[in-house]
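HUMAN: I'm a chemist; might I ask for a sequence paired with its structure tokens?

ASSISTANT:
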Amino acid sequence: MHPPLRSGRIGVGPGPPAVAFVCWRVSESQREYTMPTTGAPSRRPRARAFTLIELLIVIGVLVILIALTITIGTKITASGRARAAADTIRVLDGSVSEWSAQTGDPAPSKVLAPEAGGGDPIEQPIIDGRPEGADPDEPALPSVEMYTAAILQEGGLESVFSGVTSSWIAAATVPTDASNGALPAYRLVDPWGNPLRYVHPVYDAGWGPYWDGNSLTSRPTLSPLDATEDAYQRSWRPFDPNDTQRTSAWVGDADEGVCVGNSPYFYSAGPDGDPGTIEDNVYSSVPDFPVDTARVR
């Protein structure tokens, strides 16, 4: 048992009595002193939890930061891919110069498909577009592959494609109407996996029906002089975009570009793979566009 507590007031000299009290407990072996502080007893402050509103604000800020990061990253990636496509297109532009320097002729507008047995070769036009009446999900004609086939036919120009990154070029063949079958060529794609395109001034501009903003408008198709049995279309939107049967595979035949200065150009259909949506196309040189369709794009 502890001895009873005793208390007393301590004062030093004259003046008001001291505020503090000394409490002590006396035992046979020790004396304990407890000196309370003046005023109210001290308490350790309790940690304040976040309110629901504060948590929602923090979550909202994090969501915005994540969205900004994704958006900026996507733009950087798209910009890098566009630059890669432009680099490949510049190599193709250089191949035109090499062709002209070696042959003395302008860029090729057709490829010659030799007949078996030494018959006259069949001339096939190099057109960026589709055959007349093609479905809107049908692949376009392989214009760049046909262009490379014409380059390879000349001989001695294979090295002009050496500057293309290996990821974007591969050996290929071009089917022909000749009995010999296919011609060796190169397939060149953009970083989105879409085939690059080639437009020659002989076969540029818009051809075939197009969407004028309200309905499909008729327009003549393209009939090359050396292939009068065939007709082609180069329409930016050869279908009703509001058609309930439309799928993501429905894209334009071509961009309807008109060559500037009578010089051919190459382009990529961009990330959406649709040549008709020209705002995301990548060009070696930006072409002109027909007035009748430019106003409704």
Summary: The CA atoms of residues 114 and 120 lie 7 Å apart. The chain has one domain: 78-294. The chain has three helices and 14 strands.
